[in-house]
Amino acid sequence: MKKTKRVALTTIIVLLGMLLAACGNAKPKETGAGGLADSPAPAKSSGKAVKLDIIEPGNGLPSPDQDTIKQELDKALGTDLNLTVYASGDDYKNQLNVRMASANFPDLFTVDRQQLKQFSEQGLLLDLTAYQDKLKPTIDFIGEDSLKKGTMNGSVYAIAKSPQIPYNTYWVRKDWLDKLQLQPPKTLDELYTVAKAFTDGDPDGNGKKDTFGITGGKMGAFNTIFGAYGIGFEGGPSLYIHDNKLINSLYDPNMKDALTYIKKLVDAGAVDPELMANSGLQHQEKAIKGQVGIIYIDWPNITKDQFAEQIKAVNPNAEWMQLEAPQGPGGQYVSSWDVGMTPALYAIPKSLEKNPEKLNKVIEMLNYVSTDGSKLVQYGVEGKHYNLDGDTVVPTELLGKEGAYFWLYQFTGRPEMEYLQVKFAKQKPYIEFADKQPHIQSYGGFIDYPEGYNAVDATRYIEEELTKFIYGKRPIGEYDTFLQTLESSMNYKVYMEEAERQLKELGYLK
Amino acid sequence: MVKSLEDRIFNLLVCLFLGLAALGAILPLMYVVSVSITPISEVLKNGGFILIPKAVTFSAYEQLFTQTGIPRAFAVTAFITIAGTAVNLVLTALMAYPLSRKLMPGRSFFLLMILFTMLFSGGIIPTYLVVKSLGLLDSVWSMILPNAVWSFNVLIMKSFYEGMPEELFESARIDGAKELRILLQIVVPLSVPSMLTIGLFYMVGHWNEFFQAIMYVTDRSLFPLQVIIREILMMTQQPLENAENVLPTETMQMAAVITASLPIIVVYPFIQKHFTKGMLLGSVKG
Question: Cα distance from B188 to chain A (closest Cα, Å)?
Answer without folding.
Answer: 7
